Amino acid sequence: MPRKPKPAAPGSPTDIEAMIRVDHAGEYGAVRIYEGQLAVLKRRKSAKVETIQHMADQEQRHLQTFDRLVNERRVRPTALEPVWRIAGFALGAVTAAMGEKAAFACTAAVEEVIDEHYAAQVAALKDKDPALKATVEDFRADEAAHRDEALKQGAEQAPGYKLLSETIKAGCRIAIKLSERI
Ligand SMILES: [Fe+2]
Ligand SMILES: [Fe+2]
Question: Measured in angstroms, how far is the CA atom of residue 11 from the centroid of ligand 1?
Answer without folding.
Answer: 28
